[in-house]
From TrEMBL:
Protein's UniProt keywords contain Transcription: yes
Membrane-crossing residue ranges in chain numbering: none
InterPro entries from the UniProt entry: AAA_lid_NorR (IPR058031), Homeodomain-like_sf (IPR009057), HTH_Fis (IPR002197), P-loop_NTPase (IPR027417), Sigma_54_int (IPR002078), Sigma_54_int_dom_CS (IPR025944)
Organism expressing this protein natively: Endobacter medicaginis
Biological processes per GO annotation: phosphorelay signal transduction system; regulation of DNA-templated transcription
Limits of the Sigma-54 factor interaction domain: 1-109
Name listed for the protein in its UniProt record: Sigma-54-dependent Fis family transcriptional regulator
């Protein structure tokens, strides 16, 4: 009714004219998921957004932007990702940008270390850093972000532990808030 008349009735007052645009995102089935009457009213203009698989050249730039945005939102230090952004183009992203955003968030929190090994060819140093990051993040999660206890659990002096946190870009505060 609203789409046909372009009016809205607020409580008992007379209907008021409104000027709105509706933007809807539909899956690959198009209008099969919604009522045909509604689909025909909102389908004035169609824009096809290619999947990430169709625009692999955009993945590195998009990933970098998502990492920066996530780190800013969460107050985390920006992690060192090396050439990871460029290696991501070789991966399929069935969940498209949403999946890439989730991956960027896990990278920022230091939780996606196994993925670093499976994308492209990771160097020995990248694999060692990923393994060390995973152990440190697990220790911090088990101690609810308490650095001293996590360092003790791993058998490291506190100063050494802090140095490794800085080198690996791990923020214990981000893990306390989880």
């Amino acid at each position: 009714r609203f789409a046909a008349r372009r009016t809205v009735a607020a409580d008992t007052r007379a209907p008021e004219a409104v000027d709105v645009r509706i933007i809807a995102i539909l899956g690959e089935q198009g209008g099969d998921d919604i009522l045909p009457e509604l689909y025909h009213r909102i389908s004035a203009a169609k824009v096809r957004m290619p999947s990430l698989a169709e625009r692999r050249d955009d993945i590195a730039l998009l990933f970098t932007a998502l990492v920066l945005q996530t780190c800013e939102d969460r107050g985390c230090p920006i992690p060192e990702t090396g050439d990871l952004a460029h290696r991501l183009a070789s991966r399929d992203w069935p969940g498209n940008v949403r999946e890439l955003r989730n991956f960027a968030e896990r990278i920022c929190l230091g939780l996606e270390v196994d993925e670093l090994d499976s994308i492209g060819t990771a160097t020995l140093n990248e694999r060692l850093d990923a393994y060390e990051r995973r152990l440190i993040v697990e220790a911090l999660m088990q101690t609810e972000g308490e650095v001293t206890r996590a360092a003790e659990d791993l058998g490291l002096p506190r100063k050494t532990f802090y140095n490794r946190l800085a080198r690996l870009g791990i923020d214990p505060r981000a893990l306390r808030e989880r």
